[in-house]
Specification:
By secondary structure, this protein is of the alpha/beta class. Helices cover 43% and strands 17% of the residues. It has one domain: TIM Barrel (Alpha-Beta Barrel). The protein has ten helices and eight strands. The protein has an eight-stranded parallel beta barrel, surrounded by four helices. Bound molecules: SN-glycerol-1-phosphate.
Length: 249
């Protein structure tokens, strides 16, 4: 039987997701090229979403992506309008680092019935913002404050609370374009939670990806860097190849 996306994530190691923001997508040659390169480089997932994407933009981009690839398409929603039956799964995010009820439960209620009628997989996810040294769009749009990066115990308590609530995944985000990525100390510290960790925000080099994987991140998410330079996927290709070789030794 085919694995669900959640099962795939639970059994994955050293995975990489490309984040596509429909607000910035041309839904044409640039997106097509990015998807081709992502497939070639051995990317594991395509995440789709953004802080201020409209329903129309979202649907249009999803349709373009779906037409071109068999890679798993996972929604990383910025709001209740970012849902679509074209996707395979949705990270059903509760923004646990914040205290804004809209992002803890409000958007969920607004979209629950529609989501129920779509046959996409819903993956309960604890979404935790960590200060990345810049004011991020997600912090601004959600009107929440990220957890200071040195407050390891608050991150750990928040992740554990998410686990006790039944979340299946933890997403640690330093925010798009962050100056500082989520630290490897935080990732190592969250081993006790024993849930797959997805980590994003400000990741721009293969060394950063490797450090995060080595510390225990299941999936590293790359957004901004690829919007500026999709050839970075060639470096990722090499990194993935080396991982395969190492696994055979
Ligand atoms: C998704 O915020 C990240 O979690 C994406 O960040 O755009 O900086 O890669 P970048």
């Amino acid at each position: 039987m085919k694995k669900t996306i959640l099962e795939t994530i639970q059994s994955t190691k050293n995975a990489i997701a490309v984040l596509i923001d429909p607000e910035k997508s041309d839904n044409g040659p640039i997106l097509e090229n990015l998807i081709r390169q992502a497939e070639f480089s051995g990317i594991d997932f395509l995440f789709v979403g953004g802080s201020s994407v409209t329903r129309k933009e979202f649907e249009a981009t999803l349709k373009c992506i779906k037409k071109q690839t068999k890679l798993p398409i996972v929604i990383f929603p910025g709001s209740s309008v970012q849902i679509s039956k074209e996707a395979d799964a949705i990270l059903y995010l509760s923004l646990l680092s914040g205290r804004n009820p809209d992002f803890l439960i409000g958007h969920h209620i607004q979209s629950a019935m529609e989501l129920f009628e779509m046959s996409i997989e819903v993956m309960p996810t604890a979404y935790i913002l960590i200060d990345g040294g810049t004011q991020s769009s997600v912090a601004y749009m959600s009107q929440t404050t990220p957890i200071p990066r040195e407050k390891l115990s608050i991150v750990k308590q928040t992740a554990l609370a998410g686990k006790f609530q039944g979340k299946q995944l933890i997403y640690l985000d330093a925010g798009s374009g962050a100056k500082h990525q989520v630290s490897t100390e935080i990732i190592a510290d969250l081993k006790i939670v024993q849930l797959p960790l997805i980590v994003g925000g400000g990741i721009r080099t293969v060394e950063q990806i490797r450090d995060l994987h080595d510390a225990g991140a299941s999936i590293v998410v790359i957004g901004n860097k690829l919007e500026e330079d999709s050839d970075f996927l060639l470096d990722i290709h090499l990194y993935k190849k080396n991982l395969q070789v190492a696994a055979l030794q």
